[in-house]
Amino acid sequence: MTTVSFILNDKSKEKRISEALTKKVLSHIKKVGYKPNQLAKSLRTGQTKMLGLLVEDIGNTFFANMAKLIEKSAYNHGYHISYCSTDNDETKTKELIQLFYDRQVDGFILTPSEGLEETVQKLINNNIPLVLIDRYLTEVDTSYVVSDNFKGAYDATKHLLADQGKSKKVGFISLYSNQTQMRDRLDGYMKAIDDHKNQAYIKKINMDEEDEEAVSLIHDFLLEHKLDAVLFATNYLAILGLKTIKKYNLKYPEIFSFDDHTLFSLHEPPISVVSQDIHALSAETISCLIKEIGNKNKQSNKVVVPCALKIRA
Amino acid sequence: MTTVSFILNDKSKEKRISEALTKKVLSHIKKVGYKPNQLAKSLRTGQTKMLGLLVEDIGNTFFANMAKLIEKSAYNHGYHISYCSTDNDETKTKELIQLFYDRQVDGFILTPSEGLEETVQKLINNNIPLVLIDRYLTEVDTSYVVSDNFKGAYDATKHLLADQGKSKKVGFISLYSNQTQMRDRLDGYMKAIDDHKNQAYIKKINMDEEDEEAVSLIHDFLLEHKLDAVLFATNYLAILGLKTIKKYNLKYPEIFSFDDHTLFSLHEPPISVVSQDIHALSAETISCLIKEIGNKNKQSNKVVVPCALKIRA
DNA sequence: CTGAAAGCGCTAACAT
DNA sequence: ATGTTAGCGCTTTCAG
Questions:
Q1: What's the gap in Å between the CA of A234 and the closest CA on chain B?
Q2: Which of A222, B64, B293, B306 has the fewest other C-beta atoms within 10 Å?
Q3: pTM to 2 decimals?
Q4: Residue of B nearest to A247 (CA)
Q5: Average pLDDT by stretches of 10, chain A with 313 residues
Q6: What element of type H or E holds A124?
């Protein structure tokens, strides 16, 4: 029994079991079609080889693609992913974290919604491997992997400013949200505006506003300031912007979006974007989490992945 | 211990445990913050309350949204979902099924790729609850939940035929795939064409064709027959169609797509679609699977959900 | 109502 | 190199 167990767990070498025997056991195992019970194994070892991935919304292209890449990357490291959507709902997120905790996942990947500080801190205190993605919590010292939102927004705004004539009016449309990615994008916009000694025009939309209403707000904002160009903080907002333009048949302000979308390259005119490097983000996330799992009690890794401008004008 | 276990498993009534005691235990449990170990529980009961969801590609909007709704629906039934993308790869799918099997999921939800007949049959033989979605396997008697692809394509083609003048040329662009959903869409198109005693124009594209090449193929097909209208078998293909038109600056044939996409309503001109009722599909899927889990050894449920035409022309 | 104890399938220390 | 055994944390039968 012991021998078999060792062989099955790739400890033949370590335990100095003869190669002949190893092969014999392995082939016999295969013939009988024996499959170890993972539950029992996990119960015994405390390792589930499962990672919990909690994203804001798996229905969202950005997260769906991230999830897919993370899944693949985890697989290459011998881990599997269990995902869930948090819907940015604090209560639901806490429940899901508890659930995964109960299921004893070996680690967490999480897009934290606001108000999750204590919950995350508790995980950290319990020495649960964890990496935040897309945004992070300023008050908790955790590992995280995020895009360089500041520079992305800064570069985009610079581009818009350079593109327009002298008295250029470049606006910024974002969400009422204090999450770091939103704050950084705003800061990037501001910095570029300030560098040019220009005037800032900022509009924030309520996250759970009806599309109809949001479109109307965007319309008012656009007209009120007669903007020449607008940077949207998310692709979802930019799409609302396009709807607005279509609905009211507006003369196009130049539009720039954070996050790409199939729509943008096909749109007439095509929409330029700040694109996030989801391959790098995913790879960094897993490598970061694997590190955490490896050496408990270590300091946190904070990774910032550059964005790229895709100019389509 | 026994009593506590009963109370924790909602068997107070059944086991005639006094309400007072029940409450006392419950409140104490809460105070101590005791959480049952799900692994041990599952090992003992053989129930994991986990469902395996294997979709073709979680990065695809249709599946991502389905996954989200299925997740929610499962949650309402006390189940959780573990997802994976199969990439339509036979080997990978088999591995994933084995993996979930090892992890003792209580049931499977699967978009079967071709060549999966035996594997699925094996699951059925082992009495594993299973429901196929999006497409099914003609040779295996399983439960499934699919859209009414035939009628969807039929109605769309009818619409196109009615919309065009006398000598209307309506083409159909699909994939080289024998999966049922593709076959049914083709059949629906054919039936409508035949009903009108019209000529069919069909083009199939290789599933893993480069976009570039596919666009060129579509271009040739469109021009060769001077088509007035085209029905695309998937939204992905329709997007390639739009790219083609844009790239070659073609006069627009009327375009119809199977499956909606954010792009289509914003496009100029807007694109009409056959839309699948993902809410109904998700709900049916879970209710079907729950049924399977409830009474083992029962006959299979086959559910066909109607599609709707969204005319945007 | 409660306590004792078996057992789910596995790992790993220990003895042989 | 192999057999024996304890125990991971829970459910559930059986006696009290």
A1: 15
A2: B306
A3: 0.88
A4: B266
A5: 81 78 83 82 88 90 92 89 86 88 91 93 91 96 97 96 76 96 98 94 94 95 93 96 92 91 90 97 95 80 97 88
A6: helix A117-125
